[in-house]
């Protein structure tokens, strides 16, 4: 009798097991991200309820938070992420790895402290750089809020440092759950602000704005980030990690890490030129119920929902493995993991694009409460233009992980320059030829285009490095996803037509819940009919938990 049991050492069995492990880690992180994003939506809705969405105060607060948020992207998504995980993975393969990790943390914390002090002292300069307000009162309020907001930079960076050490040690959940604490703290601060200073009209009077309002609003936002960072000390301690400050870089290998960081920082700094262009053009919009910085922030929050739930969770789970396999020069294994990531992320970002595009108006109504339809339409049009870059953004994010795993940030730099040029050029062109009502939509449309260009250029370069990217399977999966998305979009549009106009918060909530459930159901059913095997990567750990 022939033994038909699967060989545990076969390549297919190992890849299936690896997929399940990645799926399990991704599911843990996605659950934390999902809860955090739910509270984030509540957070941004309450913020609009307290200070409005298209008011000068809302725009001033948006610009004040622009600097710490921008630097958080530089730190968490760039310099520290590019350097720390590959270096920590390599360190734990060595006998004295803990010493190396301690040195990395010491240098990182010292750098963050010095950077934060410098940025806080120069807050007025940064507000001027990132805005172009016609009213000097708005500039003054944005500057006052910035002094309270910029210290977030240190705690965003500390959160990234501690979280990436946890990830490198195989503990993925706390990093994704910590932002829940941040949202709860800031939500409490918003409720206190509204209780103390009254309705939107009362709280957003430029002439009556007080120091107490600055302290409560800006201080609450910063306190949330402090809590988000410090809460990670608990799981880090429980994991057995003990930190000891260590100085002395000679012979530690930090020189190679510094070279990676330098190119990473250069590339991301170029990308921030695009962020700067969008911020300045958005702040120059002058009129009621038009899209400015606050509207852009809300549109970007909606855009980031599916990206955070799937792409970031999966990429984070994959990254530690990619770094280890790149260090071992196992090109075939890196290629297999990259293919898995592209196919899995593609399935979910295509669904995210479809759902957000169809439900753009109901989602906008949920976030823009007690404001005219014109303000809702302003947000919806920005959501639609940016969301078509979601899949491209996911692909580009995975491409970045490959570069970081090989400690080759230098090769990304030309691609990032091209992407930044598209954003800046499209944003400025929109301001030149369009009515100001469409300036922000032109900017986000340019961002979407830049993501696709970056994805295409990144795939071509990685294909040469890895001697292929499993292109046929990746393309097949995306074609199946697009077919399923067309069916889901048709079902969603029919449902919205049956439900009728969305005129209230209740109408919007009903449309989003029913529409999201219907489109997700149609999409998944279509993928199952087409026998899309990648669904197992995420569904297997979920189904196992449900069976317990």
Summarize the helices and strands and which ones pair or pack.
Blueprint: H1 11-51, H2 56-91, H3 97-121, H4 123-129, H5 136-149, H6 152-168, H7 173-197, H8 200-203, H9 211-230, H10 233-238, H11 254-283, H12 293-327, H13 331-358, H14 360-367, H15 373-387, H16 390-405, H17 413-433, H18 439-466, H19 471-499, H20 505-529, H21 535-547
Helix pairs in contact: 1-7, 1-12, 1-21, 2-3, 2-5, 2-6, 2-11, 2-12, 3-6, 4-5, 5-9, 6-9, 7-9, 11-17, 11-18, 12-13, 12-15, 12-16, 13-16, 13-19, 14-15, 14-20, 15-18, 16-18, 17-18, 19-20
Descriptors for this entry?
globular; 81% helix; single chain; 548 residues; mainly alpha
Describe the fold and architecture.
The protein has 548 residues and is an all-alpha fold. It contains 21 helices and no strands. The longest helix has 41 residues, at 11-51.
Separation, N- and C-terminal Cα atoms: 35 Å
What is the structural class? mainly alpha
The dominant shape is: globular
Poorly predicted runs: 1-20
Strand content: under 5%
Number of helices: 21
Helical residue percent band: over 70%
Rg of Cα set: 23 Å
Average pLDDT over all residues: 80
Main β-sheet description: none
Q: Give me the strand/helix succession.
A: HHHHHHHHHHHHHHHHHHHHH
Give the total of beta strands: 0
């Amino acid at each position: 009798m022939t033994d038909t049991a699967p060989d545990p050492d076969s390549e297919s069995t190992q890849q299936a097991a690896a997929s399940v492990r990645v799926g399990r880690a991704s599911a843990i992180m996605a659950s934390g991200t999902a809860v955090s994003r739910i509270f984030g939506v509540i957070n941004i809705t309450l913020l609009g309820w307290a200070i409005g969405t298209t008011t000068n105060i809302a725009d001033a607060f948006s610009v004040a938070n622009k600097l710490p948020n921008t630097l958080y992207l530089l730190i968490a998504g760039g310099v520290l992420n590019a350097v720390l995980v590959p270096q920590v993975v390599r360190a734990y393969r060595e006998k004295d790895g803990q010493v190396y990790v301690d040195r990395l943390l010491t240098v990182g914390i010292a750098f963050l402290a010095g950077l934060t002090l410098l940025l806080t002292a120069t807050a007025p300069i940064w507000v001027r750089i990132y805005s172009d307000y016609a009213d000097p009162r708005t500039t003054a309020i944005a500057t006052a809020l910035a002094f309270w907001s910029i210290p977030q930079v240190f705690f965003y960076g500390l959160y990234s440092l501690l979280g990436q050490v946890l990830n490198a040690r195989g503990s993925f959940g706390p990093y994704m759950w910590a932002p829940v604490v941040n949202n709860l703290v800031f939500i409490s601060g918003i409720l206190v602000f509204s209780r103390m200073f009254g309705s939107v009209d009362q709280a957003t009077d430029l002439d009556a704005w007080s120091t107490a309002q600055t302290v409560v609003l800006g201080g609450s936002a910063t306190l949330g980030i402090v809590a988000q960072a410090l809460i990670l000390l608990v799981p880090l301690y429980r994991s057995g990690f003990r930190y000891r400050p260590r100085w002395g870089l000679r012979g530690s290998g930090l020189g190679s890490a510094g070279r990676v960081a330098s190119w990473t920082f250069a590339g991301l700094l170029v990308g921030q030129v695009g962020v700067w262009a969008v911020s300045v053009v958005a702040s120059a919009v002058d009129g009621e119920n038009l899209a400015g910085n606050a509207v852009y922030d809300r549109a970007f929050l909606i855009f980031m929902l599916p990206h955070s739930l799937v792409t970031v969770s999966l990429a984070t789970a994959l990254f530690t493995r990619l770094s280890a396999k790149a260090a071992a020069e196992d090109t075939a294994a890196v290629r297999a993991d990259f293919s898995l990531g592209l196919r899995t992320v593609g399935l979910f970002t295509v669904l995210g694009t479809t759902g957000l595009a169809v439900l753009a108006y109901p989602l906008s109504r949920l976030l823009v409460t007690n404001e005219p339809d014109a303000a809702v339409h302003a947000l919806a049009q920005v959501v639609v233009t940016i969301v078509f870059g979601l899949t491209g953004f996911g692909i580009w994010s995975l491409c970045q992980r490959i570069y970081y795993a090989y400690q080759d940030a230098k090769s990304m730099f030309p691609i990032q320059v091209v992407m930044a040029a598209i954003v800046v050029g499209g944003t400025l062109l929109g301001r030149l030829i369009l009515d100001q009502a469409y300036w922000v939509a032109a900017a986000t449309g340019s961002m979407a285009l830049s993501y696709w260009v970056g994805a295409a250029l990144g795939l071509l370069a990685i294909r040469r490095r890895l001697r292929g990217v499993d292109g046929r399977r990746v393309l097949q999966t995306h074609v199946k996803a697009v077919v399923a998305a067309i069916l889901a979009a048709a079902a969603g549009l029919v449902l919205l037509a049956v439900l009728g106009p969305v005129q209230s918060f209740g109408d919007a909530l009903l449309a989003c819940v029913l529409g999201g459930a219907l489109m997700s159901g149609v999409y998944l059913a279509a993928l199952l009919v087409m026998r899309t095997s990648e669904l197992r990567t995420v569904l297997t750990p979920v189904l196992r938990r449900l069976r317990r």
